[in-house]
Structure formats: structure tokens, C-alpha cells
Task: structure prediction
Amino acid sequence: MHISFFLEKFKQNKFKEAMIWKGQSYTYEWLLARFDYWRDYLKQNKLKDGRVVSLEADFSPNTVALLLNLIEKKSIIVPLTKSVEMKKTEFRQIAEVETIIKVDASDNCIIENTNVDVEHEVLTRLKQKNHPGLILFSSGSTGKSKAAVHDLVPFLEKFKVKRHALRSITFLLFDHIGGINTLLYTLSNGGTVITVNNRSPENVCKLIEKHKVELLPTSPTFLNLILLSEAYKKYDLSSLNLITYGTEVMSASTLVRIHELFPNVRLLQTYGLSEVGILRSKSKSSDSLWVKVGGEGFKTRVVDGLLEIKSQSAMLGYLNAPSPFTDDGWFKTGDAVEIDGEYIKILGRRSEIINVGGEKVYPAQVESVIQLMEEVEDVTVTGEANPITGQIVKAKIKLKTNYDTTEFRKNMRSFWKDKLPTFMIPQKVEFVNETMYGKRFKKMR
Result:
């Protein structure tokens, strides 16, 4: 049974707190009992082994028990949350979902069959192996969402290695590779999962204080929102000993400020993708953007300045896009990097590079400088076509409410002049009022 090591860990820690959901505590013993309940329920509802099942839920005790049961039944699981509500029909069609399981806000369960026949070669191959699977959709922040199919047998192997038992908050979503990783890591080590429905800086900081959270896995965008909100001033966050950040490039200015505010908290850059999973990582220091990634089933190499990964737990393939693997099995991430010995610095997506008269500009480099300005709440930098230089740098800036755009324009170029090369200075500046990040707290360019 592919989840036997999870159940054994639950038995070893049966009196420990496994989850906190809506302020209520649930033990590992409760989870074991609930696992047995859902095993009987799914049997009574005649859910066959090996079905493609969409699990439409958020983190909750019942969701965890259902997830483990579906793995046991060798289901190919498609986690979907409210963040993709408008795309659920499309995603079900792409994934060829045969059964829909919905867990509502009250933790009640509804099961529906779709009468869909599975035809995609990747799915039929996984079914023939009689292995459980996982389908994850990318955020689609720079294009169409891609459906990555994983074989859960190699995917789960890394969770058998004993790590630290931590009180972890589920900031990253249930249908995100980072959210799944946090959940399985915490439960496989006898830690405590603290769920969160309202992901505002105020509420997250409140939960950290209330439940003595030790690990906050999040995004650079959310860390910047914590800085802007100053919610950290209202709550005791001394229980935190580790903040991990990933999903997008970290701004150097944001990292320095977070490190100054939380000098006793280790800041760890993580690197993971829906296609290959989460790699082991080690930051050179808490205030450094240099990170070492790989090992334990992952190999890395840099080809023409781009990071490539070979993983034992890499996806089997996409359902709706061409294969991104080289002939010898390396996944082409599309991330441009610099190298310093064993460490790399992630510069950004190759697709986002702005070419100004032959000079390369990475949006995060410019955004980091603009965010140093006291008046700026958020900024995104992109390229715009130009007949002379090919492209120019364009900045969309959201100012804090008490600042005037006219006054800002007077000061901005003199501020940037000493901090950016001429070709990196935005030639076009647009002021906006809307947020510039998606529901996964990832910058939308």
C-alpha cells in the first residue's frame, strides 16, 4: 500500500495534534478513524480503483483523509480549489475526470460521476501501471495553464525520509505543488498542519501568533504585502523559525527588509515546479539570493544560461502541451540563472527577458530598485516593442494611497539614475490602482 508509511506515522503520533482547522484541533488518531470512515464510504459508493478523480476542496481534515484514500485506491487525483473556480469545467475536460468529489466549506462531501472515457495516452499508461497519480495545473500567469501528470509512487518516496516535525501553515494552495508538498511533509513527520482560509497578511500573522507556527511557506509577493501592511507589528511572531519562499523570483530589496525585520528567522529560497516537484535547497545565507538546489533524486545542469533538471519523480508528461524534456530526459525549466560554484541565482523566466538594443533586462532586477522607493506599494516590469531598440522597459506602478503621481514622476528618474544602467531605466511608466498578483500571490506580468 503506497500510503502505509503515512498511516504508520499517524499511529506513532496518535495523541499528537495533526491539524488545526477553523480553530479546532484534530489528532492523528482522529485522522486514522476518518481514513477508515472514508474507506468504507467510497466502497459503499462503488468508487472503482484507478479512476481519474477531481478532489475539489481546500485543506481540511476530511480532505486529508479522502486524499489518502484516493491514493490507496490508485486514483489519478486532480486537486482543484476555489482559486480556479472559473476554469474548473475546462480543467475537468483536459484531465478527463471520471469522478468529481466536492468537499464544501462545512467539510461535507458530494460524489458525482461524469461518464467520461479516458483516452489520453499518458493517463492510460498510468492506469495500466496500476499506480496512483496526480494532475497539477500550472498557474498560467504567463500563458495557458498546463496539466502535468505525475506517477505518485516515485513522487511520494521523498516523504519517507525522516525530517523535522514542524507546526506549518498551509499558505500555498491545495492545488499547488508547494501546498501539496507542505501538507505531505508535515504529516509524514508528525508535525501540525495549521489551515488558513483568509490569506490576508493580518490573518496570517494572527494565526502565527495564536497557533505558534514555526514554518511559513509563502511567496515573495506575500512577504512584500506583509511589509506594506505592517501586520507584523501587531502580533507576536517569535515562534517562527523558518520562512521558505518560492514560486517566483525574489526581489533583493524585499529579501533584505524581511531579514532585517526577522533576524532570528532562517529565510530559505525553495525551488520547485509542477512538472518536477520541490527540490532540496540551501540558501547561501538568509539575506542571499544565491541558492544550492538538487540532490536526493534530483540532478541539475545549466545549458546556455538556462536551468535544466532531471528528477526520479518528474512528471510523465503534459495533457495539453508538447513534452518539455530533452531526448536524454532533462526538463527544460526556462529559468535563466547565474552560477557561482555550487550556487545559482535565479534571474527570471527566459520568456520575460526584455531585450533593449541587445542588452538583457530581467524584470525582477528593475522591480527590486523601484520597490526601494517609499511611495511604491507594488510594481511589475515588462517589455514593450520599440522600432529603434527592439524593446523598451515599461513599469506599472501602484503607489501607496497617500502619494501623488505628479510628485512621484518628478523624483523617480533621479532616484533610478544612480541605481540602474541607462538601458534598464523604464522609458514608460503607467500608474494603476488594481493589485498585480493572482490568487496564488504570484506577480502577474
Summary: Residues 216 and 243 are 5 Å apart (CA to CA). The first strand starts at residue 17 and ends at 21.
